[in-house]
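Quick one:
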Amino acid sequence: MLNKDKFLKEFSISEETFLATGLQWKDLEEIYDDYIKIIPFLEKKADEFTFELIDSKAVHSVRRRVKKPYHLIEKIIRKGKKYNEKNINVNNYKKIITDLIGVRVLHLFKEDWIEVHKEILSNWDVAETPQVNVRPGDYNTELLKKTLANLNCELIIREHGYRSVHYLIENYIEEIDDIVYTEMQVRTVFEEAWSEIDHIIRYPYDLNNPILNEYLSIFNRIVGSADEMGTFIKNLKPTVSEGFGPFSDRELDNKFK
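Output:
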């Protein structure tokens, strides 16, 4: 049972704030109780994403999570007016909340996302056009637009954002006879590290903190540079490795004399 007083206190939500959302606590209790029942089936589906992707050539690693019940209710309250307008209830919340399952697919070099993209589209149906988020100056914008047109992706340039590709995947789960959406994000391991730190520091109550935003923006640019260096070294390797084999230390010393 979802205890209202305990819940509001734990998440520092005042009674006035809750009432202002227009939500009914009874609806939240019904959503909470229903969600607990379906979590095992969501966990199974989340594992399926991992099993399908982990052996893909361009994939470095896969992270997955199923939203915790308390965090689901907190999110509904935090965005209460938006969800109240959609008349959120136990019968429709699975379609309204699109990140009950979240999957992060990580790759090493920034250009590897295209191979991961093809892998995703070959395995699942996307409910929306995939969004390619980039920083200003990341790519030749016109050339990238042409590439994305062929890949059926939408380009979004984020002034203070990150490089990441977002997918909304529609899943029919037979055990609950309903559709549940999965939010999948594809990014480099460097971008993942930055986004995790950014999330811990800012989310959800310090999103507009100017001091934190300034320093996290600097960190963001460093991460972007690290990705650029990774690509540069990858492209450099065939040139500097040409003609070199498994030399011993003495052979290498002689080679450079």
